[in-house]
Write a structure and sequence with these properties.
CATH class: Alpha Beta
Number of domains: 1
Strand content: 25-35%
Number of helices: 1
Mean pLDDT: 82
Helix content: under 10%
Structural class: mainly beta
CATH topology: endopeptidase fold (from Nostoc punctiforme)
Number of strands: 8
Protein name: CHAP domain-containing protein
Organism: Herbihabitans rhizosphaerae
Pfam families: CHAP
InterPro entries: CHAP_dom
Shape: globular
Length: about 110
Amino acid sequence: MQTYGGDTKNTGFQHVPAAKAWAKAHGWYHEGTTGIQTGDVVTIDWEGDGESNHTGIVTKVHPDGSFETIEGNTSPTPPGDMTRQTYQAGDPNIEGYLRREPHAGASVGRR
């Protein structure tokens, strides 16, 4: 458990800025949308206040740089529904993305 702003949170990263900070500390955070790939987790700033408050998982990247995501908690009813979203390359609401890089010597693929 870790504490953020006086609230105790588990390390499951319900607090998007905590996930972003953790990814930056590990070299896994990339600003903007350049280089985005399927499987990346985008951080979104819906309020335009400089603090990410939502995430989405990239499911498809188009040749023009636009991309599709799957996101929770974006549909009005019922709460928590999953929805697909499409964003343009360079969308100002997208602050960046997390991509976990494999550890050196790690086996990637099927076992």
